[in-house]
Amino acid sequence: MAQLPQYAIIVAGGSGSRMQRDTPKQFLEVAGKPVLMHTIERFYKYNPAIRLIVVLPQEQLNTWRELCRKHTFKLFHMTVPGGATRFGSVKNGLDAVMGEGLVAVHDGVRPFVETETIKAAFEAAEQQGSAVVAVSPKDSIRELTESGSRAVPRAKYKLVQTPQCFRASILRKAYEQPEQEHFTDDASVVESTGEKITLVEGSYRNIKITTPEDLILAEAFASQDLQG
Ligand SMILES: Nc1ccn([C@@H]2O[C@H](COP(=O)(O)OP(=O)(O)OP(=O)(O)O)[C@@H](O)[C@H]2O)c(=O)n1
Ligand SMILES: C[C@](O)(CO)[C@H](O)COP(=O)(O)O
């Protein structure tokens, strides 16, 4: 059977409000290079033939071009303007996916995703139609109730990461529906069309750079990676 083409939609269309910096967090430097370049390199390392679609805020497209020039960043990728929400950005990225294939949606601000994780997600999506990377919580979990809160069994929960991989036809159908408030990731969008979500083991290093202290962790991981 011919192998399906592999795409990665790397969503970097957000403003990074929780990071509280003027520069969008996907452009902040870690180990001397913008976060987003690290992320793109991870997918290229997994498969140099992967079709990379990078979604950026419309008003940052020129800045990104400048950054690529400054850092002599040559890895081929298509750029697409983002939407007002992550849902809108994924939808715009999906317009650049042609025909059938396997599509990984990945946060541009998760630069430490490992080759094994990407590989496992694509393999599971090829077999099951969907594959979502997740890890077990390390802390105890409490559910908020009207009277306060109560303990819930931690073993029943997973923390969801990206990549989230799907057959292109499944993802396209899901993103045709109107956006809903509970859509926080691609799995929630796809699940609402009745599709089953397959979970794949993720990694605690696959952090989403969200708030200022995450940058300290990111520098530590990058320095560890550089030491090999
Ligand atoms: N309109 C949007 C909003 C988010 N994202 C992307 O989705 C990923 C996960 O979102 P999040 O961490 O929430 O990023 P921001 O929306 O940028 O951050 P914040 O919520 O703090 O403003 C990020 O790579 C972000 O760039 C996107 O492509 N388009
Ligand atoms: C997609 C995601 O990274 C999975 O954990 C997460 O849902 C993004 O959420 P955010 O509120 O946009 O940071």
From TrEMBL:
Its EC number is 2.7.7.60. InterPro entries: IspD, IspD/TarI, IspD/TarI_cytidylyltransf_bact, Nucleotide-diphossugar_trans. One of its GO terms (biological process) is isopentenyl diphosphate biosynthetic process, methylerythritol 4-phosphate pathway. Pathway: Isoprenoid biosynthesis; isopentenyl diphosphate biosynthesis via DXP pathway; isopentenyl diphosphate from 1-deoxy-D-xylulose 5-phosphate: step 2/6. The record marks R18, K25 as: Transition state stabilizer. One of its GO terms (molecular function) is 2-C-methyl-D-erythritol 4-phosphate cytidylyltransferase activity. Pfam families: IspD (PF01128). Gene3D superfamilies: Spore Coat Polysaccharide Biosynthesis Protein SpsA, Chain A (3.90.550.10). The record marks R154, K208 as: Positions MEP for the nucleophilic attack. It comes from the Bacteria. Keywords: Isoprene biosynthesis, Nucleotidyltransferase, Transferase. It catalyses: 2-C-methyl-D-erythritol 4-phosphate + CTP + H(+) = 4-CDP-2-C-methyl-D-erythritol + diphosphate. Catalyzes the formation of 4-diphosphocytidyl-2-C-methyl-D-erythritol from CTP and 2-C-methyl-D-erythritol 4-phosphate (MEP). HAMAP family: IspD. Belongs to the IspD/TarI cytidylyltransferase family. IspD subfamily. This is 2-C-methyl-D-erythritol 4-phosphate cytidylyltransferase. It comes from Pontibacter actiniarum. The gene is ispD.
